[in-house]
What we know:
With 332 residues, the chain is of the alpha/beta class. It has a single domain, classed as Aminopeptidase (3-Layer(aba) Sandwich). Helix content is 32%, strand content 24%. It has 9 helices and 13 strands. Strands 1, 2, 5, 6, 9, 10, 11, 12 and 13 form a 9-stranded mixed beta sheet that branches. α3 (52-59) runs antiparallel to α5 and α7 (251-262) crosses α9 (313-331).
Amino acid sequence: MLPWSFLPTRFVKTIKTGLGRPPVELLLPPATKPNKEINLESLNLESLNRTAMDDIYVLTAPEMQGRKAGSVGETKAAEYLATQLSMLGLRPMGDIKSGFIQAFTIPSMVETRVNGRLTFKSGENRNLRSPSVNLIGGLMGEKAQEIILLSAHYDHLGIFEGRIYPGANDNASGVGCILDVMRRILREGKVPKRTVVIAFWSAEEMGFIGSQAFVHSSTFPLDQIQVVLNADTVGNGMIGNFALWADGENTAVKAIRQAASECGASALLTPTAGHNSDSVSFASAYIPAVTLMTQDWLYKNHTPEDTIALLKPEQITLASEIMYRAVRMLAF
């Protein structure tokens, strides 16, 4: 059972195609060697000059309805992100013939509170599944089939008991951070040695369903991914005080820690204490992955108070700088 009625016509067609006919071949980067410089004249200047805070304001607007996976609000957020990827001139790397979109379904979920935080648990209707999408786009490098993957989840909790859960820190901040990094790379105009792919996962709040869907049915070969750098809740807390979640000291962790050190920030490998983010989906596939977050990420997390007012723009700017420097080390 698939509730399609809330989706815009273009997304309905794309998602139905993706779900109804699984890919029979993988989307591979072209064999042709790219130019040494990016053609900035072909890019949308308005999008190229947007900031992370611009993205956060859009994603936390009332019409986004808290971006619950499978909801109208999530679809509006996905439309916004797909538009940004397109205006930045990135190569669509979703399902075949689906552009930036990778479609998947989510099982029935219901809201529950755990230690005062709203979260999800499995619903009783095992037959009901709802459509959702990841968004994936790439800047092709000289070594097209070696990929540095930057990611963030764009979903949140939606509306519960009449109150919107905006998810400004969790995780509009991470989405804005990743877009900030890609825009900066594009403005500099140099083609990377390795391909840089950005991905926005949905249904993270329901148990990393979007990133797991990608790992289980990737739109390009997983063995092309050299490193995954994931941003989640990077906008609050003491300036420069970051934490890392990862499966031990790996290439991704080392790159982020070196970048943080260069920025005068700290990024300590921290126990997950029962929590996690989408980097865990890639760690399970033995791909070096790390999640960057603030040490105070739990403050007002999963509450209606996670609003723009909670954020510190300078913290988000610093997180973007750390991610950017890590990408420069790994991809250029």
